[in-house]
Write a structure and sequence with these properties.
With about 140 residues, the chain is α+β, with helices and mostly antiparallel strands. It has helices at about 1-30, 35-45, and strands at about 55-60, 70-75, 80, 85-90, 105-110, 115-120, 125, 135. Helices cover about 25% and strands about 25% of the residues.
């Protein structure tokens, strides 16, 4: 058991070092890293090719989240952010449904451009949608003004 705990600790440390090493290596290879919010948003839109942008709402954090930040949502669907600092994008896939319990996505783009997608059915409360920037508003909202 003691060796297993040591092994887990080593794996966690190596993972942290790998992330920082990749970031440092990337910084020397590509100017402008960590990834900008606009570049991260472009990667997010590529992940959403199956959904027309005029049918979904997309929110993004104002600043990058620190590694291992707990993102709290309604319904005990909490998510821990990646091992590197990352942008969080929340995608409401059916924005006209008033009651929740419908498909949505939490998309993280870390500092080196790695994308992680989590499919859920509830919205975030920390950070809340009010704390995030609305990047894409479904065109169908115009019909309800």
């Amino acid at each position: 058991m003691k060796f297993f705990n040591i092994f887990l600790l080593l794996v966690a440390m190596l993972n942290m070092v790998a992330c920082s090493n990749e970031l440092e290596k990337s910084k020397t290879e590509v100017a402008g890293l960590p990834i900008s919010k606009n570049d991260a948003y472009t990667l997010v839109k590529e992940q959403l090719k199956d959904k027309p942008l005029n049918e979904i709402d997309i929110y993004g954090t104002v600043e990058m989240l620190s590694a291992h930040t707990k993102v709290i949502s309604v319904g005990n669907e909490d998510i821990i952010s990646p091992d590197c600092d990352s942008w969080l994008f929340f995608v409401d896939e059916i924005p006209l449904i008033a009651n929740w319990g419908h498909p949505c996505k939490y998309i993280f783009v870390d500092a080196i451009g790695k994308v992680s997608v989590y499919e859920r059915i509830m919205f975030p409360t920390k950070p809340s949608l009010e704390e995030m920037e609305l990047l894409n508003r479904a065109d169908i909202w115009n019909e309800y003004k």
